[in-house]
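User: I've been trying to design a sequence by hand for this structure and keep getting stuck. Would you show me what you'd pick, starting by listing the structure so we're on the same page?

Assistant: Good idea, let's start from the same input. This is the structure you sent:
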């Protein structure tokens, strides 16, 4: 593409070099860390004008936006939460901006929470919800403008009236109801004035809240004296006897877990007994209706196992394997079906084998494999639900690259799987695509899997003539699994290829896979990504002139590393909500909670790791960098948009390429949920940018939905 008319906005370069543990660290754009300064505001205004000039002449943008919006009209449907005859479930109908929470079972379905009815502008999101054990009250959390600062309220399900709240400082808080609906446990941050300056995002405590009383009167039950970055989880058994509490520091892949018998101590002062403490592992325990303690854990099992024990003697020394670790599949969830109408109680167990889901049935007493359930395709199972009081049914979500979210129902009496609910707009015509899982090898010989999505029929023989997007994440134990994506379908329908790599740092192959891509091993993630690009080029799927990279959040760091380490491999990059200054990331928002994943610049050895790949610090003058579009969100309370600001300025100054470096900064949205129309507009802009910079042709007409999925390698 020709240079931008008018060039780039002026950005002052500081002659700032600091000595950190003996490393000279330059930071020429530190002034962009202050979003309120007149200089930063002017720069952002100029960048917005630069992006607008480019965007307004961008072919295909409106067509991509419209097509993504049309493909999003399939809507969505979520798993039901059962309380006796009542079922609570989210669903988004074709023309709705956000999913709506419904209740049914006592008559026709009723709307409980419609975010757009609360805020017609569509900037309010429903972040979490939890019915009490009887289904009479509903705790729910709303936030506004993408800030994720949820306010907790309680609703009377029968009347729809708010009977408690709002309670602030409840971001990332679970709710664990006691029987009867009179009280619940939850987590809340301390008031800002009660903590050191700059630490208001931390310092959580676990409280017992009595419905209808002021939050200030809540009883603190846990958390004092622990690390400021500790997150807590709470749950209460269906009979109200057992309280389970977990604590993890930041995003560390380890936690401590305690259990308390609420019949033997005051619920306001539980007598906690260690269940698993001081071990480098995670555990998710529950007490079943049969009185046994079930523990889903990766202790001595990186791909996960299910153990049973006595809740009165809950330590790992008493755990007995019920469903052992599978050597090549990662455990993801389970449900217990032990209704009186079953002659043989069972476990319904979900696993992912190389990021593709499977569901099996096991005998509840012995763990013996009973059967494998047939799924609609090679896709992803999201969650497995059961009735709290037991029964013979389990529900689980399903999606794949061409199948919108649906809910399947397993009937243990008949041994059958059927469709319980589909996304309400599934008549939307989507393109025919082919998805193939391949295996390639990284720089150190490690096999890595990647899914390649192409127009049905593919390009035979492949000649690299199609534009290709390579997507990845590679961090925080998060797997890249098959899922319906309007953006992917719109891109492939337009003639492109889309590849999703299952990099180290994720959970595609279990906790060892995660740890192989964190801390001092983070470069493995980037090597895996570079090798994916090299595979696509070697196989004739793409050429460097037609290949783009795309990622967000930790995936934005991945894209930044790809652009600065191997710029010759790519024509374009979309870098969304990225972490890019890895020397100072801990200083902003909740960045400090991630130093267990990346390392800390306060420690000399770990600063060495970070400087080894920090994209902002690897920008070099005179390099022909790819075209880059940074997309940042000014209400992002996880990743500060300053990362995108500083990196954009650095690349605009340094690049020797005529390809553009652009910033798309969007207000009143954050890191996570957003309205459908805003999602479509963002996708349309990004897809049109990549299409233009990689030479993709125009949009094609749609055809009936069809998908073929294969594995190779």
């Amino acid at each position: 593409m020709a240079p931008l008319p008018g060039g780039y906005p002026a950005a002052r370069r500081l002659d700032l070099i600091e000595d950190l543990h003996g490393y000279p660290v330059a930071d020429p754009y530190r002034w962009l860390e202050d979003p309120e300064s007149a200089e930063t505001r002017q720069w952002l205004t100029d960048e917005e004008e630069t992006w607008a000039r480019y965007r307004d002449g961008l072919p295909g943008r409106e067509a991509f936006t419209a097509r993504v919006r049309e493909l999003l009209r399939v809507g969505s449907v979520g798993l039901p939460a059962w309380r006796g005859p009542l079922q609570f479930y989210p669903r988004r109908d074709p023309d709705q901006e956000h999913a709506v929470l419904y209740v049914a079972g006592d008559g026709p379905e009723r709307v409980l929470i419609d975010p757009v009815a609360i805020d017609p502008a569509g900037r309010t999101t429903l972040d979490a919800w939890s019915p009490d054990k009887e289904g009479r009250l509903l705790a729910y959390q709303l936030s506004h403008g993408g800030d994720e600062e949820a306010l907790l309220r309680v609703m009377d399900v029968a009347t729809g009236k708010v009977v408690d709240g709002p309670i602030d400082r409840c971001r990332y808080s679970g709710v664990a109801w006691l029987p009867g609906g009179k009280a619940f446990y939850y987590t809340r941050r301390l008031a800002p004035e009660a903590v050191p300056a700059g630490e208001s995002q931390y310092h959580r405590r676990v409280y017992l809240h009595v419905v209808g009383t002021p939050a200030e009167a809540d009883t603190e039950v846990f958390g004092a004296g622990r690390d400021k970055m500790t997150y807590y989880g709470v749950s209460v058994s269906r009979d109200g006897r057992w309280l389970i509490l977990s604590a993890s520091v930041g995003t560390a892949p380890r936690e401590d877990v305690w259990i308390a018998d609420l019949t033997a101590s005051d619920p306001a002062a539980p007598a906690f007994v260690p269940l698993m403490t001081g071990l480098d592992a995670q555990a998710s325990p529950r007490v079943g209706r049969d009185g046994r303690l079930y523990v889903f854990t990766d202790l001595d099992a990186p791909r996960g196992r299910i153990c049973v024990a006595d809740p009165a003697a809950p330590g790992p020394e008493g755990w007995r394997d019920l469903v052992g670790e599978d050597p090549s599949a990662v455990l993801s969830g389970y449900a217990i079906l032990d209704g009186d109408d079953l002659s043989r109680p069972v476990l319904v167990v979900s696993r992912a084998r190389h990021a593709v889901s499977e569901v099996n049935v096991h005998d509840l007493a012995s763990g013996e494999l009973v059967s494998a359930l047939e799924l609609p395709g090679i896709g992803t199972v999201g969650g497995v639900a059961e009735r709290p009081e037991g029964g013979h049914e389990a529900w689980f979500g399903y999606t794949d690259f061409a199948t919108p979210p649906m809910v399947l129902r397993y009937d243990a009496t008949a041994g059958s799987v059927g469709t319980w609910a589909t996304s309400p707009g599934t008549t939307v015509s989507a393109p025919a695509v082919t998805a193939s899982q391949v295996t390639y090898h990284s720089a150190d010989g490690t096999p890595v899997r990647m899914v390649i999505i192409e127009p049905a029929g593919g390009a035979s023989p492949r000649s690299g003539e199609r534009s290709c997007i390579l997507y990845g994440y590679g961090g925080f134990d998060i797997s890249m699994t098959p899922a319906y994506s309007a953006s992917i379908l719109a891109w492939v329908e337009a003639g492109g290829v889309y590849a999703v790599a299952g990099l180290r740092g994720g959970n595609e192959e279990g906790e060892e896979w995660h740890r192989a891509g964190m801390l001092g091993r983070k470069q493995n993630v980037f090597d895996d990504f570079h090798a994916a690009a090299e595979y696509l080029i070697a196989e004739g799927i793409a050429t460097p002139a037609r290949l783009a990279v795309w990622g967000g959040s930790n995936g934005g760091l991945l894209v930044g590393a790809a652009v600065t380490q191997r710029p010759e491999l790519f024509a374009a990059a979309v870098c969304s909500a990225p972490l890019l200054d890895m020397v100072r990331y801990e200083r902003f928002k909740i960045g400090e909670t991630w130093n267990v994943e990346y390392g800390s610049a306060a420690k000399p050895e770990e600063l060495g790791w970070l400087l080894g790949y920090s994209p902002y610090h690897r920008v070099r003058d005179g390099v022909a960098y790819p075209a880059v579009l940074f997309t940042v969100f000014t209400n992002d309370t996880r990743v500060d948009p300053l990362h995108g600001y500083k990196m954009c300025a650095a690349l605009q100054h340094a690049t020797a390429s005529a390809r553009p470096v652009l910033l798309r900064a969007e207000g009143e949205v954050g890191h996570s949920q957003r309205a459908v129309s805003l999602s479509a507009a963002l996708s349309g802009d990004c897809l049109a940018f990549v299409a233009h910079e990689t030479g993709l042709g125009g949009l094609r007409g749609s055809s009936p939905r069809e998908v073929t999925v294969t594995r190779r390698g």
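That's my pick for every position. To get oriented when you compare it with your attempt: The CA atoms of residues 261 and 312 lie 8 Å apart. The chain has a mean pLDDT of 95.
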